Amino acid sequence: MIDGRDMEPPEPLELALAALATLAPGAELIMLLRCEPLPLYSILDRNGYRYRSERRADGSNEIHIQKG
Amino acid sequence: MQPTLSFEQAPPISVPYRFFLTAPLFGAVAGLVLAWFGPAALASRWSPGALAMTHLIVVDFMLQVMCGSLLQFVAVVAGANIWRPRLVAAVVHPLITAGAVFLATAFLLGQQVLFLLAALVFATALGLFLTVMAVALVRTPARSASIRVLRLAVFGLLLTVVLGVTLASTLGLHRSLQSIWSLPTLINVHVAWGLGGWALMLVIGVSFLVVPMFQLTPAYPLWLTRLVPAGLFLALCLWSLQLLPGTSAAQSWQSGVVLAGMLLAGLYAVATLWLQSSRRRRQADVTLVFWRGAMLALLALAVSWLLFLALPQLGGQARAPLWLGVLALPGVFLSVIQGMLYKIMPFLNWLHLQRQGGTVSTQPNMKQMIPERAMRGQMRLHFAALALLLAAVIWPALALPAGLAFSASCLWLEWNLVGAARLYVRFRNRIRAAAAAPLAPI
Q1: What is the pLDDT of residue A41?
Q2: Which own/partner contact pairs does B132-140 have at CB distance under 8 Å and 24+ positions apart?
Protein backbone atom coordinates (compact mmCIF):
# COMPACT_ATOMS: atom_id res chain seq x y z
CA MET A 1 0.00 0.00 0.00
CA ILE A 2 1.36 3.41 -0.98
CA ASP A 3 -0.40 6.41 0.53
CA GLY A 4 0.71 9.17 -1.85
CA ARG A 5 -1.90 11.73 -0.80
CA ASP A 6 0.62 13.93 0.99
CA MET A 7 3.55 13.28 -1.32
CA GLU A 8 4.89 15.64 -3.92
CA PRO A 9 4.73 14.39 -7.55
CA PRO A 10 6.36 12.29 -8.87
CA GLU A 11 7.29 10.64 -5.53
CA PRO A 12 4.22 8.33 -5.50
CA LEU A 13 5.09 7.31 -9.07
CA GLU A 14 8.72 6.62 -8.09
CA LEU A 15 7.59 4.49 -5.14
CA ALA A 16 5.05 2.66 -7.29
CA LEU A 17 7.66 1.76 -9.92
CA ALA A 18 10.00 0.48 -7.19
CA ALA A 19 7.20 -1.62 -5.67
CA LEU A 20 6.07 -2.98 -9.05
CA ALA A 21 9.59 -4.21 -9.79
CA THR A 22 9.27 -6.70 -6.90
CA LEU A 23 5.51 -7.38 -7.07
CA ALA A 24 4.84 -11.12 -6.89
CA PRO A 25 2.36 -12.69 -9.36
CA GLY A 26 -1.12 -12.57 -7.85
CA ALA A 27 -0.12 -9.89 -5.33
CA GLU A 28 -1.77 -6.48 -5.45
CA LEU A 29 -0.34 -2.99 -5.02
CA ILE A 30 -2.81 -0.41 -3.67
CA MET A 31 -2.20 3.31 -4.08
CA LEU A 32 -4.03 6.26 -2.54
CA LEU A 33 -3.75 9.51 -4.52
CA ARG A 34 -5.52 12.84 -4.70
CA CYS A 35 -5.34 12.94 -8.49
CA GLU A 36 -5.96 10.57 -11.39
CA PRO A 37 -2.39 9.36 -12.24
CA LEU A 38 -2.49 9.37 -16.03
CA PRO A 39 1.32 8.98 -16.41
CA LEU A 40 1.19 5.85 -14.21
CA TYR A 41 -1.69 4.40 -16.25
CA SER A 42 0.27 4.74 -19.48
CA ILE A 43 3.30 3.04 -17.86
CA LEU A 44 1.07 0.22 -16.57
CA ASP A 45 -0.54 -0.21 -20.00
CA ARG A 46 2.86 -0.37 -21.70
CA ASN A 47 4.17 -2.98 -19.28
CA GLY A 48 1.15 -5.28 -19.16
CA TYR A 49 -0.20 -4.54 -15.67
CA ARG A 50 -3.92 -4.62 -14.86
CA TYR A 51 -5.41 -1.84 -12.74
CA ARG A 52 -8.69 -0.40 -11.55
CA SER A 53 -9.39 2.91 -9.88
CA GLU A 54 -12.10 3.70 -7.33
CA ARG A 55 -13.12 7.14 -6.10
CA ARG A 56 -13.27 7.23 -2.29
CA ALA A 57 -15.67 9.28 -0.20
CA ASP A 58 -12.94 11.84 0.62
CA GLY A 59 -12.43 12.51 -3.12
CA SER A 60 -9.12 10.64 -3.40
CA ASN A 61 -8.52 7.71 -5.75
CA GLU A 62 -7.74 4.16 -4.68
CA ILE A 63 -5.85 2.30 -7.40
CA HIS A 64 -5.44 -1.50 -7.38
CA ILE A 65 -2.60 -2.85 -9.54
CA GLN A 66 -1.74 -6.46 -10.41
CA LYS A 67 0.60 -8.18 -12.85
CA GLY A 68 -1.32 -8.96 -16.05
CA MET B 1 -12.46 18.86 -10.80
CA GLN B 2 -9.21 17.19 -9.84
CA PRO B 3 -6.07 18.25 -11.65
CA THR B 4 -4.64 15.72 -14.06
CA LEU B 5 -1.52 15.67 -16.21
CA SER B 6 -1.11 13.81 -19.48
CA PHE B 7 2.43 13.10 -20.57
CA GLU B 8 1.58 11.36 -23.82
CA GLN B 9 1.62 14.72 -25.63
CA ALA B 10 4.81 15.98 -23.95
CA PRO B 11 7.21 17.44 -26.56
CA PRO B 12 10.85 16.22 -26.84
CA ILE B 13 13.00 17.37 -23.92
CA SER B 14 15.14 19.54 -26.22
CA VAL B 15 12.11 21.80 -26.87
CA PRO B 16 11.86 23.36 -23.40
CA TYR B 17 15.55 22.89 -22.53
CA ARG B 18 16.91 25.05 -25.34
CA PHE B 19 14.88 27.98 -23.93
CA PHE B 20 15.75 27.23 -20.29
CA LEU B 21 19.49 26.91 -20.85
CA THR B 22 20.05 30.22 -22.63
CA ALA B 23 17.71 32.42 -20.55
CA PRO B 24 19.87 32.93 -17.40
CA LEU B 25 22.85 34.01 -19.52
CA PHE B 26 20.96 37.12 -20.62
CA GLY B 27 20.06 37.86 -17.01
CA ALA B 28 23.81 37.82 -16.36
CA VAL B 29 24.33 40.25 -19.26
CA ALA B 30 21.62 42.55 -17.83
CA GLY B 31 23.50 42.60 -14.50
CA LEU B 32 26.73 43.48 -16.31
CA VAL B 33 24.97 46.33 -18.14
CA LEU B 34 23.99 47.76 -14.74
CA ALA B 35 27.51 47.27 -13.36
CA TRP B 36 29.05 48.91 -16.46
CA PHE B 37 26.76 51.93 -16.68
CA GLY B 38 26.56 52.35 -12.91
CA PRO B 39 24.32 55.02 -11.36
CA ALA B 40 23.55 56.52 -14.80
CA ALA B 41 21.48 53.42 -15.62
CA LEU B 42 19.30 54.14 -12.60
CA ALA B 43 18.71 57.84 -13.35
CA SER B 44 15.19 57.07 -14.64
CA ARG B 45 13.20 54.35 -16.43
CA TRP B 46 14.04 56.11 -19.70
CA SER B 47 17.83 55.85 -19.41
CA PRO B 48 19.39 53.70 -22.19
CA GLY B 49 20.87 51.34 -19.57
CA ALA B 50 17.53 50.85 -17.79
CA LEU B 51 15.69 50.21 -21.08
CA ALA B 52 18.37 47.74 -22.27
CA MET B 53 18.41 45.86 -18.92
CA THR B 54 14.63 45.72 -18.80
CA HIS B 55 14.34 44.17 -22.25
CA LEU B 56 17.19 41.72 -21.66
CA ILE B 57 15.29 40.51 -18.59
CA VAL B 58 11.72 40.57 -19.90
CA VAL B 59 12.44 39.14 -23.34
CA ASP B 60 15.64 37.13 -23.23
CA PHE B 61 15.13 35.76 -19.73
CA MET B 62 11.41 35.80 -18.89
CA LEU B 63 9.88 35.38 -22.33
CA GLN B 64 12.36 32.62 -23.23
CA VAL B 65 11.50 30.54 -20.18
CA MET B 66 7.80 31.30 -20.48
CA CYS B 67 7.69 30.22 -24.15
CA GLY B 68 9.62 27.01 -23.42
CA SER B 69 7.43 26.23 -20.41
CA LEU B 70 4.21 26.98 -22.25
CA LEU B 71 5.11 24.59 -25.09
CA GLN B 72 5.52 21.92 -22.40
CA PHE B 73 2.71 22.97 -20.06
CA VAL B 74 -0.07 23.33 -22.63
CA ALA B 75 0.72 19.89 -24.08
CA VAL B 76 0.78 18.26 -20.65
CA VAL B 77 -2.01 20.11 -18.83
CA ALA B 78 -4.44 20.57 -21.71
CA GLY B 79 -3.39 17.40 -23.54
CA ALA B 80 -3.27 19.78 -26.52
CA ASN B 81 -1.53 19.01 -29.78
CA ILE B 82 1.22 21.56 -30.37
CA TRP B 83 1.97 21.84 -34.09
CA ARG B 84 5.52 20.54 -34.74
CA PRO B 85 7.01 21.67 -31.39
CA ARG B 86 10.60 20.87 -32.39
CA LEU B 87 10.35 23.08 -35.49
CA VAL B 88 8.54 25.88 -33.64
CA ALA B 89 11.21 25.87 -30.91
CA ALA B 90 14.02 25.80 -33.50
CA VAL B 91 12.60 28.93 -35.18
CA VAL B 92 11.25 30.88 -32.19
CA HIS B 93 14.17 30.37 -29.79
CA PRO B 94 17.04 31.83 -31.87
CA LEU B 95 14.84 34.62 -33.23
CA ILE B 96 13.71 35.78 -29.78
CA THR B 97 17.30 35.64 -28.59
CA ALA B 98 18.50 37.72 -31.54
CA GLY B 99 15.56 40.12 -31.29
CA ALA B 100 16.25 40.98 -27.67
CA VAL B 101 19.96 41.49 -28.39
CA PHE B 102 19.05 43.84 -31.27
CA LEU B 103 16.63 45.71 -29.03
CA ALA B 104 19.00 46.05 -26.07
CA THR B 105 21.82 47.20 -28.38
CA ALA B 106 19.45 49.63 -30.08
CA PHE B 107 18.62 51.23 -26.72
CA LEU B 108 22.30 51.43 -25.72
CA LEU B 109 23.61 52.76 -29.04
CA GLY B 110 20.50 54.56 -30.31
CA GLN B 111 20.78 52.74 -33.65
CA GLN B 112 17.52 53.08 -35.59
CA VAL B 113 18.18 50.14 -37.89
CA LEU B 114 18.47 47.82 -34.88
CA PHE B 115 14.98 48.85 -33.69
CA LEU B 116 13.64 47.92 -37.10
CA LEU B 117 15.47 44.60 -37.10
CA ALA B 118 14.13 43.83 -33.62
CA ALA B 119 10.57 44.68 -34.72
CA LEU B 120 10.86 42.41 -37.76
CA VAL B 121 12.36 39.50 -35.83
CA PHE B 122 9.84 39.72 -32.95
CA ALA B 123 6.89 39.96 -35.35
CA THR B 124 8.07 36.79 -37.13
CA ALA B 125 9.02 34.72 -34.08
CA LEU B 126 6.15 35.67 -31.84
CA GLY B 127 3.66 35.66 -34.70
CA LEU B 128 4.51 31.98 -35.23
CA PHE B 129 4.52 31.19 -31.50
CA LEU B 130 1.20 32.92 -30.88
CA THR B 131 -0.48 31.23 -33.84
CA VAL B 132 0.63 27.77 -32.76
CA MET B 133 -0.32 28.40 -29.13
CA ALA B 134 -3.70 29.96 -29.97
CA VAL B 135 -4.66 27.00 -32.19
CA ALA B 136 -3.65 24.51 -29.47
CA LEU B 137 -5.51 26.39 -26.72
CA VAL B 138 -8.67 26.90 -28.78
CA ARG B 139 -8.84 23.28 -29.94
CA THR B 140 -8.17 21.60 -26.62
CA PRO B 141 -11.24 20.12 -24.96
CA ALA B 142 -9.75 20.88 -21.50
CA ARG B 143 -11.83 23.39 -19.51
CA SER B 144 -9.85 23.83 -16.30
CA ALA B 145 -9.34 27.22 -14.62
CA SER B 146 -5.67 27.08 -15.64
CA ILE B 147 -6.50 26.73 -19.33
CA ARG B 148 -9.04 29.59 -19.22
CA VAL B 149 -6.42 31.87 -17.70
CA LEU B 150 -3.70 30.71 -20.13
CA ARG B 151 -5.95 31.78 -23.01
CA LEU B 152 -6.18 35.27 -21.48
CA ALA B 153 -2.39 35.30 -21.00
CA VAL B 154 -1.74 34.40 -24.64
CA PHE B 155 -4.10 37.20 -25.69
CA GLY B 156 -2.11 39.51 -23.39
CA LEU B 157 1.11 38.48 -25.12
CA LEU B 158 -0.49 39.21 -28.51
CA LEU B 159 -1.34 42.78 -27.49
CA THR B 160 2.10 43.26 -25.90
CA VAL B 161 3.80 42.15 -29.12
CA VAL B 162 1.58 44.29 -31.37
CA LEU B 163 2.25 47.37 -29.22
CA GLY B 164 5.95 46.53 -28.83
CA VAL B 165 6.48 46.04 -32.56
CA THR B 166 4.63 49.32 -33.19
CA LEU B 167 6.89 51.10 -30.71
CA ALA B 168 10.11 49.60 -32.10
CA SER B 169 9.04 50.48 -35.67
CA THR B 170 8.23 54.03 -34.57
CA LEU B 171 11.67 54.41 -33.00
CA GLY B 172 13.31 52.74 -35.99
CA LEU B 173 11.64 54.87 -38.61
CA HIS B 174 12.03 57.93 -36.38
CA ARG B 175 8.50 58.71 -37.29
CA SER B 176 6.28 59.96 -34.56
CA LEU B 177 2.76 58.74 -33.98
CA GLN B 178 2.20 61.86 -31.88
CA SER B 179 -0.79 62.88 -33.98
CA ILE B 180 -2.53 59.68 -32.86
CA TRP B 181 -0.88 58.59 -29.59
CA SER B 182 1.87 60.01 -27.45
CA LEU B 183 4.82 57.67 -27.00
CA PRO B 184 4.35 57.44 -23.19
CA THR B 185 0.70 56.43 -23.69
CA LEU B 186 1.69 53.60 -26.03
CA ILE B 187 4.43 52.53 -23.61
CA ASN B 188 2.04 52.60 -20.62
CA VAL B 189 -0.35 50.25 -22.37
CA HIS B 190 2.48 48.03 -23.72
CA VAL B 191 4.01 47.65 -20.23
CA ALA B 192 0.63 46.98 -18.59
CA TRP B 193 -0.23 44.17 -21.01
CA GLY B 194 3.29 42.74 -20.92
CA LEU B 195 3.60 42.57 -17.14
CA GLY B 196 -0.08 42.28 -16.12
CA GLY B 197 -1.84 40.71 -19.09
CA TRP B 198 0.90 38.27 -20.10
CA ALA B 199 3.45 37.60 -17.33
CA LEU B 200 1.25 37.91 -14.23
CA MET B 201 -1.71 36.24 -15.95
CA LEU B 202 0.55 33.32 -16.91
CA VAL B 203 1.87 33.01 -13.34
CA ILE B 204 -1.72 33.07 -12.02
CA GLY B 205 -2.91 30.45 -14.52
CA VAL B 206 0.01 28.13 -13.84
CA SER B 207 -0.26 28.60 -10.06
CA PHE B 208 -3.88 27.39 -9.99
CA LEU B 209 -2.48 23.97 -10.97
CA VAL B 210 1.07 23.80 -9.64
CA VAL B 211 0.68 25.40 -6.18
CA PRO B 212 -1.86 22.81 -4.93
CA MET B 213 -0.18 19.94 -6.81
CA PHE B 214 3.51 20.50 -5.97
CA GLN B 215 3.28 22.47 -2.75
CA LEU B 216 0.51 20.22 -1.35
CA THR B 217 -1.77 23.11 -0.45
CA PRO B 218 -5.58 23.24 -0.54
CA ALA B 219 -6.98 24.30 -3.94
CA TYR B 220 -7.50 28.02 -4.66
CA PRO B 221 -11.12 29.00 -3.82
CA LEU B 222 -13.34 28.84 -6.91
CA TRP B 223 -14.47 32.47 -6.56
CA LEU B 224 -10.84 33.63 -6.56
CA THR B 225 -9.96 31.63 -9.68
CA ARG B 226 -12.75 33.55 -11.44
CA LEU B 227 -12.50 37.00 -9.89
CA VAL B 228 -8.74 37.65 -10.11
CA PRO B 229 -8.11 36.80 -13.82
CA ALA B 230 -11.39 38.35 -15.01
CA GLY B 231 -10.92 41.46 -12.88
CA LEU B 232 -7.31 41.89 -14.00
CA PHE B 233 -8.32 41.48 -17.64
CA LEU B 234 -11.11 44.05 -17.26
CA ALA B 235 -8.73 46.50 -15.53
CA LEU B 236 -6.25 46.12 -18.42
CA CYS B 237 -9.00 46.73 -21.01
CA LEU B 238 -10.06 49.90 -19.14
CA TRP B 239 -6.40 50.98 -18.86
CA SER B 240 -6.12 50.60 -22.66
CA LEU B 241 -8.95 53.10 -23.19
CA GLN B 242 -6.30 55.83 -22.88
CA LEU B 243 -5.42 54.92 -26.48
CA LEU B 244 -8.78 56.36 -27.54
CA PRO B 245 -8.49 59.96 -28.76
CA GLY B 246 -9.23 62.58 -26.11
CA THR B 247 -8.99 60.28 -23.08
CA SER B 248 -5.29 60.49 -22.29
CA ALA B 249 -5.85 63.48 -20.00
CA ALA B 250 -8.41 61.71 -17.84
CA GLN B 251 -6.07 60.88 -14.95
CA SER B 252 -8.63 60.25 -12.22
CA TRP B 253 -10.23 57.12 -13.70
CA GLN B 254 -6.77 55.79 -14.61
CA SER B 255 -5.85 55.97 -10.92
CA GLY B 256 -9.01 54.03 -10.15
CA VAL B 257 -8.04 51.33 -12.66
CA VAL B 258 -4.52 51.09 -11.17
CA LEU B 259 -6.06 50.85 -7.70
CA ALA B 260 -8.34 47.99 -8.80
CA GLY B 261 -5.49 46.17 -10.56
CA MET B 262 -3.17 46.45 -7.56
CA LEU B 263 -5.88 45.32 -5.13
CA LEU B 264 -6.47 42.23 -7.29
CA ALA B 265 -2.74 41.49 -7.49
CA GLY B 266 -2.44 41.96 -3.71
CA LEU B 267 -5.45 39.68 -3.12
CA TYR B 268 -3.88 36.97 -5.27
CA ALA B 269 -0.54 37.27 -3.42
CA VAL B 270 -2.21 37.08 0.01
CA ALA B 271 -4.34 34.09 -1.07
CA THR B 272 -1.25 32.23 -2.34
CA LEU B 273 0.70 32.96 0.86
CA TRP B 274 -2.28 31.82 2.94
CA LEU B 275 -2.60 28.57 0.95
CA GLN B 276 1.12 27.93 1.32
CA SER B 277 0.86 28.45 5.08
CA SER B 278 -1.77 25.69 5.25
CA ARG B 279 0.12 23.14 3.14
CA ARG B 280 0.03 19.50 4.23
CA ARG B 281 3.80 19.01 4.26
CA ARG B 282 5.81 21.22 6.60
CA GLN B 283 9.13 20.88 4.74
CA ALA B 284 9.90 24.01 2.67
CA ASP B 285 11.84 23.24 -0.52
CA VAL B 286 13.51 25.90 -2.68
CA THR B 287 10.55 26.14 -5.06
CA LEU B 288 8.24 27.00 -2.17
CA VAL B 289 10.64 29.63 -0.80
CA PHE B 290 11.06 31.18 -4.28
CA TRP B 291 7.25 31.34 -4.63
CA ARG B 292 6.88 32.91 -1.19
CA GLY B 293 9.54 35.49 -2.04
CA ALA B 294 7.71 36.24 -5.28
CA MET B 295 4.35 36.67 -3.56
CA LEU B 296 5.88 38.95 -0.90
CA ALA B 297 7.44 41.00 -3.73
CA LEU B 298 4.02 41.17 -5.46
CA LEU B 299 2.45 42.36 -2.24
CA ALA B 300 5.23 44.94 -1.79
CA LEU B 301 4.68 46.03 -5.42
CA ALA B 302 0.94 46.54 -4.86
CA VAL B 303 1.50 48.44 -1.60
CA SER B 304 4.27 50.60 -3.15
CA TRP B 305 2.11 51.47 -6.14
CA LEU B 306 -0.83 52.45 -3.92
CA LEU B 307 1.55 54.52 -1.79
CA PHE B 308 2.86 56.27 -4.92
CA LEU B 309 -0.74 57.04 -5.92
CA ALA B 310 -1.52 58.43 -2.47
CA LEU B 311 1.72 60.45 -2.21
CA PRO B 312 2.32 62.10 -5.60
CA GLN B 313 5.51 63.82 -4.38
CA LEU B 314 6.94 60.29 -3.85
CA GLY B 315 5.33 58.65 -6.89
CA GLY B 316 6.46 61.51 -9.11
CA GLN B 317 10.16 60.85 -8.44
CA ALA B 318 12.10 59.75 -11.55
CA ARG B 319 13.26 56.56 -9.81
CA ALA B 320 9.82 55.51 -8.48
CA PRO B 321 9.05 53.42 -11.60
CA LEU B 322 12.47 51.73 -11.19
CA TRP B 323 11.50 50.65 -7.66
CA LEU B 324 8.32 49.09 -9.06
CA GLY B 325 10.28 47.54 -11.94
CA VAL B 326 12.81 45.86 -9.62
CA LEU B 327 10.00 44.48 -7.44
CA ALA B 328 8.17 43.19 -10.54
CA LEU B 329 11.00 41.73 -12.64
CA PRO B 330 13.67 40.19 -10.38
CA GLY B 331 11.27 40.25 -7.41
CA VAL B 332 8.09 38.61 -8.67
CA PHE B 333 8.73 37.05 -12.06
CA LEU B 334 12.35 35.87 -11.85
CA SER B 335 11.69 34.40 -8.40
CA VAL B 336 8.73 32.37 -9.68
CA ILE B 337 10.64 31.38 -12.82
CA GLN B 338 13.71 30.17 -10.92
CA GLY B 339 11.60 28.28 -8.40
CA MET B 340 9.71 26.61 -11.23
CA LEU B 341 12.88 25.78 -13.20
CA TYR B 342 14.20 23.93 -10.13
CA LYS B 343 11.01 21.85 -10.18
CA ILE B 344 10.48 21.46 -13.92
CA MET B 345 13.98 20.38 -14.97
CA PRO B 346 14.37 17.55 -12.41
CA PHE B 347 10.82 16.45 -13.26
CA LEU B 348 11.45 16.44 -17.03
CA ASN B 349 14.81 14.69 -16.55
CA TRP B 350 13.11 11.99 -14.51
CA LEU B 351 10.14 11.67 -16.86
CA HIS B 352 12.13 11.44 -20.08
CA LEU B 353 14.65 8.98 -18.62
CA GLN B 354 11.76 6.87 -17.39
CA ARG B 355 10.12 6.94 -20.82
CA GLN B 356 13.36 5.75 -22.40
CA GLY B 357 13.35 2.67 -20.24
CA GLY B 358 15.12 3.91 -17.13
CA THR B 359 14.27 2.02 -13.96
CA VAL B 360 14.47 2.86 -10.29
CA SER B 361 17.92 1.29 -10.11
CA THR B 362 19.32 2.82 -13.34
CA GLN B 363 18.25 6.45 -13.02
CA PRO B 364 18.58 9.09 -10.26
CA ASN B 365 15.45 10.19 -8.42
CA MET B 366 14.01 13.72 -8.61
CA LYS B 367 15.97 15.02 -5.63
CA GLN B 368 19.31 13.92 -7.09
CA MET B 369 18.96 15.89 -10.35
CA ILE B 370 20.23 19.22 -8.92
CA PRO B 371 22.08 19.26 -5.57
CA GLU B 372 19.89 20.83 -2.87
CA ARG B 373 22.80 22.86 -1.46
CA ALA B 374 23.52 24.40 -4.86
CA MET B 375 19.87 25.42 -5.32
CA ARG B 376 19.65 26.92 -1.82
CA GLY B 377 22.93 28.81 -2.23
CA GLN B 378 21.83 30.25 -5.56
CA MET B 379 18.45 31.20 -4.11
CA ARG B 380 20.08 33.11 -1.25
CA LEU B 381 22.27 34.96 -3.74
CA HIS B 382 19.20 35.82 -5.86
CA PHE B 383 17.36 37.35 -2.89
CA ALA B 384 20.52 39.16 -1.76
CA ALA B 385 20.85 40.58 -5.29
CA LEU B 386 17.19 41.64 -5.18
CA ALA B 387 17.78 43.48 -1.90
CA LEU B 388 20.87 45.16 -3.38
CA LEU B 389 18.96 46.18 -6.52
CA LEU B 390 16.21 47.77 -4.41
CA ALA B 391 18.86 49.53 -2.32
CA ALA B 392 20.55 50.73 -5.52
CA VAL B 393 17.30 52.41 -6.63
CA ILE B 394 17.47 54.48 -3.43
CA TRP B 395 21.29 54.87 -3.39
CA PRO B 396 22.45 54.56 -7.04
CA ALA B 397 26.07 54.33 -5.86
CA LEU B 398 25.26 50.66 -5.14
CA ALA B 399 24.65 50.00 -8.86
CA LEU B 400 27.98 48.20 -9.33
CA PRO B 401 27.66 45.63 -6.51
CA ALA B 402 23.94 45.17 -7.27
CA GLY B 403 24.64 44.50 -10.96
CA LEU B 404 27.48 42.10 -10.18
CA ALA B 405 25.45 40.22 -7.55
CA PHE B 406 22.51 39.86 -9.94
CA SER B 407 24.83 38.70 -12.70
CA ALA B 408 26.48 36.15 -10.39
CA SER B 409 23.12 34.74 -9.27
CA CYS B 410 22.08 34.27 -12.92
CA LEU B 411 25.38 32.52 -13.73
CA TRP B 412 24.98 30.23 -10.73
CA LEU B 413 21.44 29.39 -11.91
CA GLU B 414 22.87 28.61 -15.35
CA TRP B 415 25.50 26.34 -13.78
CA ASN B 416 22.83 24.43 -11.83
CA LEU B 417 20.59 24.02 -14.89
CA VAL B 418 23.47 22.92 -17.13
CA GLY B 419 24.40 20.37 -14.45
CA ALA B 420 20.87 18.94 -14.60
CA ALA B 421 20.95 18.77 -18.41
CA ARG B 422 24.37 17.03 -18.35
CA LEU B 423 23.08 14.51 -15.82
CA TYR B 424 20.17 13.76 -18.17
CA VAL B 425 22.52 13.19 -21.12
CA ARG B 426 24.81 10.95 -19.05
CA PHE B 427 21.99 8.68 -17.85
CA ARG B 428 20.24 8.68 -21.23
CA ASN B 429 23.46 7.45 -22.84
CA ARG B 430 23.84 4.83 -20.11
CA ILE B 431 20.29 3.54 -20.65
CA ARG B 432 20.81 3.41 -24.43
CA ALA B 433 24.14 1.61 -24.02
CA ALA B 434 22.55 -0.95 -21.68
CA ALA B 435 19.71 -1.54 -24.17
CA ALA B 436 22.16 -2.01 -27.06
CA ALA B 437 24.62 -4.25 -25.16
CA PRO B 438 24.59 -7.97 -26.09
CA LEU B 439 23.37 -10.33 -23.36
CA ALA B 440 26.17 -11.60 -21.18
CA PRO B 441 26.91 -15.34 -21.59
CA ILE B 442 25.61 -17.49 -18.75
Answers
A1: 81
A2: B132/B82, B132/B83, B132/B88, B133/B70, B133/B74, B133/B82, B134/B158, B135/B83, B136/B74, B136/B75, B136/B78, B136/B80, B136/B81, B136/B82, B136/B83, B137/B74, B137/B78, B137/B80, B139/B80, B139/B81, B140/B74, B140/B78, B140/B79, B140/B80
